UniProtKB/TrEMBL annotation:
Keyword DNA damage in annotation: no
The protein's name: Proline--tRNA ligase
Catalytic activity: tRNA(Pro) + L-proline + ATP = L-prolyl-tRNA(Pro) + AMP + diphosphate
Organism in which the protein naturally occurs: Paenactinomyces guangxiensis
Taxonomic path: Bacteria, Bacillati, Bacillota, Bacilli, Bacillales
Keyword Cytoplasm annotated: yes
Molecular function terms from GO: aminoacyl-tRNA deacylase activity; ATP binding; catalytic activity, acting on a protein; proline-tRNA ligase activity; transferase activity
Amino acid sequence: MRQKNAFIPTLRTVGEAEMVSHQLLLRGGYIRQLATGIYTYLPLAYRVLHKVENIVREEMDRIGAQQLLLPALHPAELWKETGRWTNYGPELVKLQDRHERDFVAGPTHEEVITDLLRDEMNTYKKLPMSLYQIQTKFRDERRPRSGLLRGREFIMKDAYSFHADRESLDVTYHHMYQAYMNIFTRCGLDFRAVEADAGAIGGKGTHEFMVLSDAGEDTIAMCEACDYAANIEMAEVVGSEKSTDKTPVPAMEKVATPGKRSIQDVAAYLNVPTRQLVKSLLFIADGTPVLVLVRGDHEVNDVKVKNLVDASLCELADEETIRRVTGAPSGFVGPVGLKEKVQVFVDQAVMQLNEMVVGANEADTHLKHVQVGRDFTVDQVADLRNIQPGDACPRCSATIRFKRGIEVGHVFKLGTRYSEAMKAKFLDPNGKEQPFIMGCYGIGISRTIASIVEQHNDENGIIWPVAVAPFAVHLIAVNMKNEDQARLAEGLYEKLQQAGVEVLFDDRTERAGVKFKDADLLGMPVRVTVGAKANEGTVEIKLRRTGEAKELSPEEVLKELPDWLKRADG
């Protein structure tokens, strides 16, 4: 492609873009914002999209998945069948047609694919079946401020598998997992597959694929010794459920704590360590109040609570409900003397305390010298807190550390979550109807592009990995008005094209400095510069990533280029 005629509107500065990927993709003329969280992909970005999509297609096709294209507009009736019309949340984009019929702009396609298969697949003999698509999705994100990392409109690959039994699902899940490992490796990403929560998609058994980046919104708990990694929502905390301290505990004592609501304030006021205080948090799980206890220096994990009670919706109670159930305002809630009987779930670390301080279920009052079993009873002990740096790895007991990550892929074992709700069944070998057992597997294509830029850049611009670069070679003629340079550059451009090399030819009549700055910003892996030594038949070849350079003849460039491209990724 000749750059003189190319649509590459570069910018020297951008406005309020915070993420490096957002800044560089805007400055490099890759994307333009139409509205908050909605972007146009300009020609260079579209070439990158195409490269990533092709990698995805090759790996999906390799494991036998078949590509199709599902509608982006979904009838609300399908979402009402599964309950997600109300449960998905405010991110769901709802609209009506001229007949006032409700629709959804698809954020994901579990309902649509299940509807298709329940009408077309009626026997175990046609299973397993894996289908995928690459399509634009829509989610009304609350804060779409990170460029392509979090948009309201984005491009996604979503795959779905249908099975007659769990063993078949396990096999496909393994194949998808490995395909994802291949995809993100081929895209040049430093990533980890981490244990995760299924969220609004539902199902049990899931992994997220996280690109390691300080720009990430997710926290990953990683072991320093083994390959264990998990999203903080799912990271398992190991520990004893018994106290080793056998010191006799005085009788429970009520103490005034006027205006002291926070753990820090109460600990300072009573002169006790925060680890000796216990936070009592009232949750509403599918409409039912439950009380959760964690140590004062720990944070409750909402996802673990939700999974423990197997609730579709689990959230902290409002102030009115707290007062009704406990008799006290928030900040003074405890497990002793509740007004209403509720189930009490206790984190295992609380059980290690010989005595504790808890809210007294009275305003401005706490209880000291409280003991589990003696002063209140527990319905269940479980791991209910967030893991912390320095905790023991649940696999090898080495030390856990935290890293930030960007989620680019997610694989789920859905089970029968959707097939049962939508009555999608097949006949088993005995002629009995059974619900499909399903899997779901997503990759954020546009988010992957931004993640690549987050990891592959320097102070001058983007550094594309060869596999996804818009062009392999950026050919620059320093001065197109110089006959020797123009002739040599034109000839080399033709030969590179004939050799099947993707090349961007900067044939503009710009100053050399402008061309080199643009080349660094755009980030093609290999740069070939035709300059002052053109009259000697010599050009410079240079790697964008390392700066390694060498003077060669055009013939040598063509001969050595494959080796330079192999070294371009470092």
